[in-house]
Amino acid sequence: MSINRVVISGNLTRDPELRQTQSGMPVMSMGVAVNDRRKNPQTGEWEDYPNFIDCTMFGTRAQSLSNYLTKGTKVSIEGKLRWSQWERDGQKRSKIEVIVDELEFMSSRNSGGAHNSGDYGAPAYNAQPAYNAQPAYSAPAPVIDASSSVYDEDIPF
Questions:
Q1: What's the Cα-to-Cα distance from 95 to each of 13, 73, 82, 92, rounded to whole Å?
Q2: How far apart are CA 107 and CA 74, in angstroms?
Q3: Which of 4, 9, 81, 141 lies at 20 to 30 Å from 54 by C-alpha?
Q4: What are phi and psi of 74, to 5 degrees?
Q5: Cβ atoms 46, 22 nearer than 8 A
Q6: What is the sign, positive or negative, of the torsion defined by CA atoms of 31, 103, 99, 15?
């Protein structure tokens, strides 16, 4: 049996999209760009190659964080991989995405990164029962309730 965990850090490629399921659960979709560094076989130089990762977060955390995330925000994400398959116009399609369990802002408002409304300190929004620390701005930090997480039951030890 394997454990499905992934950690990525990068920049949001677009503003997050927030929607709701038919039952009313918030679902946030976002894209994260990460670099892969490889040596170019022709020139021998190291080059960065971008990878674009689709990420999805569910629940009240998704709804709260959607107010603070914008294109260009530097984040670190921990979650699990999910593969899905569907058919469109007679062609089978598939993708792998990250289901987000934890999200951390990786840059401060005044560091050299993107200077937009989603670029705040570095509070971690993770799978703890509650997050009470205040980031360095006036809006209150969202309280995170991850008691409905099913991932802990998947771990065999």
A1: 17, 24, 8, 11
A2: 6
A3: 141
A4: -85, 125
A5: no
A6: negative
Give the model confidence (pLDDT) of 60-110 as tens digits: 999 999 999 999 999 999 999 999 999 999 999 998 999 999 999 997 654
Distance of alpha carbon 5 from alpha carbon 113, whole angstroms: 27
Q: Is 15 in contact with 28 (CB distance < 8 Å)?
A: no
Beta bridge partners of 100: 79
* C-alpha dist (Å) from residue 148 to 42, 62, 110: 51, 14, 36
Residue 76 vs residues 29, 79, 103, 105, 154: alpha-carbon distances, Å:
15, 10, 6, 7, 23
β partners of residue 71:
none
CA distance 155 to 157: 6
Q: How many Cβ atoms are within 10 Å of 133's Cβ, its own excluded?
A: 8
Query: How far is Cα 146 from Cα 156, in angstroms, rounded to an integer?
Result: 20
What does pTM read for this prediction? 0.65
Q: What is the C-alpha to C-alpha distance for residues 54 and 119, in angstroms, rounded to an integer? A: 20
Alpha-carbon span 27 to 18, nearest angstrom: 6
Give the whole-angstrom CA distance, residue 60 versus residue 24.
11
